[in-house]
Amino acid sequence: MATFLEEVNERIKGVPIQACYHCRKCTAGCPVAFAMEYNPNKVIKMIQMGMRDEVLNSSTIWLCASCETCITRCPNEVDIARMMDVLREMAIESKIPPREKKIAKFHEAFLSSIKSGGRINEPMMIVNYKLKSRDYFSDMGMGLSMFMKGKIKLLSPRTKDIKSVKAIFEATSK
Amino acid sequence: MKVSYYPGCSLHATGKEYDLSVKAVCSALGIELKEVEDWSCCGASSAHMTNFKLSVALPARNLIAAEKEPGDMMVPCAACFNRFKSAQHHLREDAALKTKIEEIVGGKFQDTVKVRNPIDIFFSDIGIDALAGKVKKNLTGLKPVSYYGCLLLRPPEICEFDNHEQPVMMDKLMGALGAEPRNWSCKTDCCGGSLTLGKTEIVTRLVGKLMTMAREAGANCLVTACPVCFANLDTRASGEGTLPSFYFTEIMALALGLEGPESWFKMHNTDPRPLLKSLNLLP
Ligand code: SF4
Ligand code: SF4
């Protein structure tokens, strides 16, 4: 059986993460590191040590904002942003309950909105997110003010050939 | 000049003034836009953050649709731009993936479309001098900081855009309009992007820092080319020091004397009209 490290590297399909020499440039430039449970370079070490559960259960993988600063600055071209995507996918596949539930629910609401309309209908997506996350009250002010300013259309046009979009979702779901 | 146009979902809703201002500016500059037929969402961050294949297949569907008319495809939304550039990169680099994606999407990826952001088209194809020649209202007194954010620039080998640590194209466009762009060190910082709903406090903190840094640089507004950044700057800052934000095309339309800017500014959460009136840029 492949080790956790081998599995992650296999999915990243790029520079093996053990090329990291822990200069911490990625962590220094990461806009979200202050809120992360484990810093980006620490996650690499943990993967090398086979700490699968700790990594896949961590908040770090959900908090990464995919800003790509880390990969852009890493002297060894270790693609941490891609690594975070891979870890999130692995956590979802292993049905590990996401540590940052609201963020996971946001992605679900977003994707299900595309699946049903081909395009994101922002008000519908936000309602959907609110229902899924049970986060009913925050942001009412913002939503309302955008609504009043005529930004949010109740009916944005959908993709006509919605079947082709649904087919993509079917074919890419594991 | 004729280009394909991919508006993307945001430009039909929260980024409506970006769509309207891009169209107005293009028409004034003689750029004809042809919307990609029956386009669908690019998948944005949520697709690539949770499902790699989906994140390539969704843009591929649109790229293949756009390839009916090879040439440039204008993508104003920085997030869509990033997803298209990234999908093209993966389809070029990984033959097995390409075969798989073509099978899923039901079409051939021919790589005949060049994905371009309007900043680059205005800067490189129209040119700073030609733009300056069309200015009807000099934006004297407007001191924007250009906020490029993440998605136009990173990773640089994929985005093939401006310098990824010190981009200048948007600043030069602003300069050509008579504005006085301020230099600052946060041009390429992250606003927290799509964490805005699931983890609002992170975005509030990052946006707060951007506002402080913009003020310290002597700016009186921010300009951006990203609907996610714009929404965060426009709605997630609080307090007295909050500066108004603009899509760079709104500012261009104002300087070119086009119809529309005032009606777009009304849609902003942080009202930019008091600033513009104080500078005599609005009646
Ligand atoms: S920047 Fe690269 S080498 Fe340095 S700690 Fe991060 S991943 Fe490791
Ligand atoms: S991509 Fe993620 S880990 Fe890398 S710097 Fe950005 S937020 Fe941090």
Please give a structural write-up.
The complex is a heterodimer of chains A (174) and B (283). Chain A has 174 residues and is an all-alpha fold. Chain A has eleven helices and no strands. Chain A has helices at 4-12, 25-29, 40-48, 52-56, 60-63, 69-73, 80-93, 101-117, 122-133, 140-148, 162-172. In chain A, helix 1 (4-12) crosses helix 7 (80-93) and helix 8 (101-117) packs across helix 9. The model of chain A has no long low-confidence stretch (mean pLDDT 88). By secondary structure, chain B is of the alpha/beta class. Chain B is built from 15 helices and seven strands. In chain B, the strands form two sheets. Chain B has a four-stranded parallel sheet with strand order 2-1-3-4. Chain B has a three-stranded parallel sheet with strand order 5-6-7, sandwiched between helices. The mean pLDDT of chain B is 95. Classes of the chains: A mainly alpha (174), B alpha/beta (283). One iron/sulfur cluster is lined by residues 29-32, 40, 64-70, 80-81, 84 of chain A.
Please give the structural blueprint.
The complex is a heterodimer of chains A (174) and B (283).
Chain A: H1 4-12, H2 25-29, H3 40-48, H4 52-56, H5 60-63, H6 69-73, H7 80-93, H8 101-117, H9 122-133, H10 140-148, H11 162-172
Helix pairs in contact in A: 1-7, 8-9, 8-11
Chain B: E1 2-5, H1 16-28, E2 32-35, H2 44-50, H3 52-66, E3 71-74, H4 78-93, H5 95-105, E4 113-116, H6 118-126, H7 128-133, E5 144-147, H8 156-159, H9 169-176, H10 195-198, H11 200-216, E6 221-224, H12 227-235, E7 245-247, H13 248-255, H14 261-265, H15 273-278
Helix pairs in contact in B: 1-13, 2-3, 3-4, 3-5, 4-5, 6-9
The structure holds iron/sulfur cluster (SF4) (2 copies).
Instruction: Return the string of H and E elements of chain A.
Output: HHHHHHHHHHH
Tell me the domain tally of chain B: 2
Q: Please count the helical segments of chain A.
A: 11
CATH fold category name of the largest domain in chain B = Rossmann fold
Question: What profile does the largest beta sheet of chain A have?
Answer: none
Compute the number of strand runs of chain B: 7
Radius of gyration of chain B: 18 Å
